[in-house]
Every structure is written in structure tokens, then in C-alpha cells.
């Protein structure tokens, strides 16, 4: 595969390290997926992709179709996602999928590029949980189209042991539609998270955020653009980053408000926590507003754990490691609280706690 990768000289990619992708693109995959029972959360429809290919024997498709996908992109990584993928389409007055749909993506050393498309018609609802595990390069494009008053909730875990996970969402929301996406990066691989979310209909709602946890020499990079094109739209971007050792976590969040998008309500909250001063956190909130009747705000802060709080907790008999883990867990709690599925929320919180307990 011939790769044409963006350069760090480009503003949108200046914090990204894509240097390992050319090697991963030609690396052989073993195709061996071990026992994955611990990655499933519920008992609803489930899809298992191993190196980008559906494992039919361990999948229950439910309302999801697997095959060629009507999705394409000009994004430099997402444009590689051609061929077979998965599609979820829920029609107006159609049956709501039974429980959350779970998709587990397993990488076994090589690269996989998978497109997906989600289409919810008027008043339709769905909930998805995606998990990325293994070693290699998992590259995904997800096109999302929500009709009037449709509702979609997504929870995504990036848990690979090594390698790279690159996710690109391209979203269009109709009038009164709602999309909530929450991500947790708590593996040992690096990641790039991209999204362009267009609120095309009046009264649409979009929330996109999560928690990125990095240690050693990991790099997590999120670049999110929310475009308000219609009046009375609401958007929230809430991100929390924790960086330890020599790790780097970067978050760029942008809100665009078109001239006709009056009465827009947009908020951004970007916060970073450095567990060691050798770590790096980059935050870049942006607002571009052309309407004159809007309510938009952004905030960005980077800091360290409160030494007085640590002293108080250790003086009460809590070990220093446990005290740091508890304070860090409180720091990221609001980023994971928006996960609507209770089982998924508990699983994500437990995985974050396990990561935090491993801090030394």
C-alpha cells in the first residue's frame, strides 16, 4: 500500500505522530483472536471484526448489515477505508434495536481499514458500543446521518495493547436530532480521533468528548469540528486528558457558527492533568462565529494533582498511589458520565480505574 500521509507542517496534524503507520501498513497479521468474552458488555447484537473481517461464527448481526458500504471521504486516513464494512439503518416507525449493539475490533499485527454507515430515519433510536483491542493499525471511517428527532448514543473504547487506532466520524444531523459520542482511550497504543459534525437542522444536539489516558511514550490526538448551520442548535465538547511519563495528549476542539445559525448554544471544556512534568498536554479550543445571537463559551486548563489534597488523603491512611488514582478518577469522571447505557458506563469506568491504579 502506498501511503500519502499528512505532515506535521499542516496545522491540523502538527501534534500527530504518524511515523509508524508505513511499517504497520505492510506488517503481517496473525489472524489469531484469543478469548474475547471479557470485552462483551451486554447480550444484544454483536459483531466481531478480526483484522477488518467479520467473524461470523462469533457474531450476532441483528439489524446490522455487513458488506459494501456507501461511504467515502477525502480525509487522508479515512479515504483508505474502502471495501466491505458494516451498515446500521433504522427506518421511520421501525423497531428499535434490542439493547446496545456491540462491535469489537481486534487487530493482530497488521492494518485494517473499515468503513461504516449509520442511518437513522425520523424518530429512530439506537445505541452502539465499540471496542478496539489487539496490536496493529485499526483505521475506521463512520458516516452518520440522523433524521428529524432521531437519537444515537455511542460509546467507544480504545484499548489496543500497541499500534495505532485512527477514527474518523463524518456526521449530519437533521432537525431535533441528537448524537452523544463518548470515547475512552485507556490502552497502550496511540490514537488519532477525528470528527466533523454538521448540525444541519434547527434544534439539533451534538455532544462529543471523553477521556484520553496516556503513559510511557504514547500519543493521543483528538481533532473535532462542530459546524452549526441552522438555528437553535446545541453542542457540547467535554474532553479530559491525563498524561504520565513522556506521553503526549493533544485536543483541538473547534465550533463553527454560520450566519444563519442564530440562537446557537455551544460549549467547550478541555482540561488536562499531567502526572509527571515530563509529560505533554496540548489544548486548542476554537470558536468561529458569524451569527450575532449566540451563546458560546470555551475553556482550557492544564495542571497537576493538588498537593494539599494528596497530603490530606495520605494523612488519613490512604496510600500515595491510591490517593493519586482517586483524585485522577474524579478528574475524568464527568467525561464518562454521559454514557447512557449503564453496563457500558460501568465497564468504561472500571477500565479507567484499572489504568489509573496502574500508575506508579
Descriptive keywords:
globular, mainly beta, 360 residues
Structure overview:
By secondary structure, this protein is mainly beta. It contains 4 helices and 17 strands. It has a 17-stranded mixed sheet that branches. A hairpin with a 2-residue loop joins strand 1 and strand 2. Helix 2 packs across helix 3 and helix 3 (320-336) packs antiparallel against helix 4 (342-357). The longest helix is centred in the last third of the chain and has 17 residues, at 320-336. The protein is globular and about 60 Å long. It starts with 20 loop residues before the first helix and ends with a helix. The model has no long low-confidence stretch (mean pLDDT 94).
**Mean pLDDT, all residues:** 94
User: Which overall shape is indicated by the principal axes computed on the Cα atoms?
Assistant: globular
Which structural class should the secondary elements be placed in?
Answer: mainly beta
Which sequence of SSEs, written as H and E, runs from N to C? HEEEEEEEEEEEEEEEEEHHH
Q: Tell me the major beta sheet.
A: 17 strands, mixed
Offer a concise description of the structure.
The chain is built from four helices and 17 strands. The protein has 360 residues and is mainly beta.
SSE layout and pairing:
Elements: H1 21-26, E1 46-50, E2 53-54, E3 64-68, E4 84-90, E5 101-120, E6 125-146, E7 151-158, E8 162-173, E9 178-185, E10 190-199, E11 205-214, E12 219-228, E13 234-243, E14 248-257, E15 265-274, E16 280-289, E17 295-303, H2 307-315, H3 320-336, H4 342-357
Amino acid at each position: 500500500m502506498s501511503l500519502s500521509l499528512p505532515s506535521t507542517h499542516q496545522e491540523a496534524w502538527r501534534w500527530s505522530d504518524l511515523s509508524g503507520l508505513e511499517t504497520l501498513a505492510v506488517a503481517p497479521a496473525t489472524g489469531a483472536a484469543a478469548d474475547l468474552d471479557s470485552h462483551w458488555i451486554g447480550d444484544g447484537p454483536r459483531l466481531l471484526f478480526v483484522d477488518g473481517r467479520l467473524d461470523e461464527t462469533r457474531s450476532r448481526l441483528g439489524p446490522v448489515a455487513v458488506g459494501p458500504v456507501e461511504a467515502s471521504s477525502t480525509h487522508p486516513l479515512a479515504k483508505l477505508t474502502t471495501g466491505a464494512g458494516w451498515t446500521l439503518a433504522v427506518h421511520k416507525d421501525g423497531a428499535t434495536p434490542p439493547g446496545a449493539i456491540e462491535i469489537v475490533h481486534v487487530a493482530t499485527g497488521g492494518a485494517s481499514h473499515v468503513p461504516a454507515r449509520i442511518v437513522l430515519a425520523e424518530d429512530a433510536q439506537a445505541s452502539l458500543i465499540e471496542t478496539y483491542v489487539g496490536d496493529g493499525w485499526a483505521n475506521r471511517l463512520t458516516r452518520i446521518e440522523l433524521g428529524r428527532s432521531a437519537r444515537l448514543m455511542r460509546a467507544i473504547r480504545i484499548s489496543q495493547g500497541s499500534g495505532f487506532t485512527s477514527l474518523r466520524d463524518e456526521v449530519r444531523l437533521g432537525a431535533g436530532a441528537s448524537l452523544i459520542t463518548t470515547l475512552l482511550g485507556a490502552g497502550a497504543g496511540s490514537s488519532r480521533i477525528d470528527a466533523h459534525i454538521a448540525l444541519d437542522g434547527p434544534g439539533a444536539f451534538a455532544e462529543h468528548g471523553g477521556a484520553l489516558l496516556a503513559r510511557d511514550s504514547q500519543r493521543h490526538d483528538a481533532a473535532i469540528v462542530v459546524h452549526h448551520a441552522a438555528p437553535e442548535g446545541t453542542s457540547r465538547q467535554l474532553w479530559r486528558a491525563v498524561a504520565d511519563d513522556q506521553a503526549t495528549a493533544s485536543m483541538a476542539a473547534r465550533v463553527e457558527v454560520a450566519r444563519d445559525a442564530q440562537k446557537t448554544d455551544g460549549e467547550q471544556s478541555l482540561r488536562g492533568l499531567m502526572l509527571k512534568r515530563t509529560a505533554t498536554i496540548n489544548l486548542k479550543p476554537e470558536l468561529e462565529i458569524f451569527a450575532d445571537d449566540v451563546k458560546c463559551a470555551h475553556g482550557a486548563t492544564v495542571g497537576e494533582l493538588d498537593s494539599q489534597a494528596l497530603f490530606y488523603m495520605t494523612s488519613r491512611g490512604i496510600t500515595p498511589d491510591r490517593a493519586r488514582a482517586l483524585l485522577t478518577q474524579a478528574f475524568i469522571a464527568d467525561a464518562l458520565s454521559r454514557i447512557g447505557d449503564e453496563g457500558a458506563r460501568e465497564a468504561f469506568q472500571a477500565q479507567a480505574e484499572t489504568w489509573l491504579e496502574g500508575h506508579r
